[in-house]
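Notebook entry, structure prediction.
Reason for the run: the old model in the group folder had no record of what sequence produced it. Starting over properly, with the input documented here first.
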Amino acid sequence: MYEQIDAYVLRLIRESTPDKTVWNIEKIREGKPSNWNYIDGCMITALLMMSEITGDPQYYDFAEHFIDSFIGEDGQIRTYDMSKFNLDDVNEGRVLFPLYEKTGKEKYRKAADLLRKQLAEQPRTYEGNFWHKAIYPDQVWLDGLYMAQPFLATYEKKFGSADYSDTMGQITTVRQRMYDPEKHLYYHGYDASKKAFWADPETGCSKNFWLRSIGWFAVALADLLEITEKGKAHDQLLAIFAELMKGVSEYQDAETGMYWQVPDQPGREGNYLETSGSSMLAYAMLKGARLGALPQEYAQKGQKTFQGIVEKYLSFTNGSLNLGGICLVAGLGPENNRRRDGSYEYYISEPVVENDAKGVAPFLLLYTEIKRISI
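New structure, fully documented this time:
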């Protein structure tokens, strides 16, 4: 099976160019060329990790060629618009650090500086958390923690003062505002102003739990545990991470090891076992166990999830391997898109697709953790 997965990823690479990636289903459906975006960023992050684990240069070569095509010698990023203050756009910047270290190209350092400048100017809630985007005032989404905080912490570690207080302050606020102590899960979004149409007027939180948003948060915390050094921030991260992993593990499907699109409502009509969020949680559990942040039993849980995804959603179609069960996209608002209201009905209504990077990349991250066990 490992050889088949390797071949699957290499096929995706061969069929992709910087201007058209086969794994960005949203761009394909819109008929638009690729731009600087978090979807490709997640995939390039996964490819660099595949390169590290396998030693196969094809993964790194594609990743470097891809990112190089977007970065000018002055560090400007093709198609990037800072004025949108979109945290999603920061995520792809994570790959600039390993590329800079390996190539020594100053343009990668300059591009990282540019994205750091965005975060320095990013609008914040009254509590100090980044707005998710300029079009989402006062809103904090779980996904945004993954999009911005590992980049910010890595930048501070490599080029700053290694002060993680900003990152920890934002994560602590999320724990205080978005965690449900009865369900042991985090809500998808929180509006500090409590004015958004989807926000609870008392708590500011969205109505439901969405698997992939919880997955993004779990991956962010797992990655931050690897980035940060031992100390107060690391200890705080560890406590929040362990609590999160214990909570979500309560919702693991006994048969497949996967998790449901709306995790606290298994078996409800329309709900389904979803690939991307399941992959993220399994990756976080395996990585957490590897780093010593979680008991080894979590590695076993992660392995079960991996096997469940392989058996349920990895299949041969027309002679090629394909990964299914991936929610294409979900969000909250904005005001002129009230269909995205955070309701159960909304989350199960979004398209379920094959081979989209929002599922493929997390699956590959999970796969690299699985491969580490066999090294």
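Summary: Residues 142-159 form the longest helix (18 residues).
The old model has been moved to the deprecated folder.
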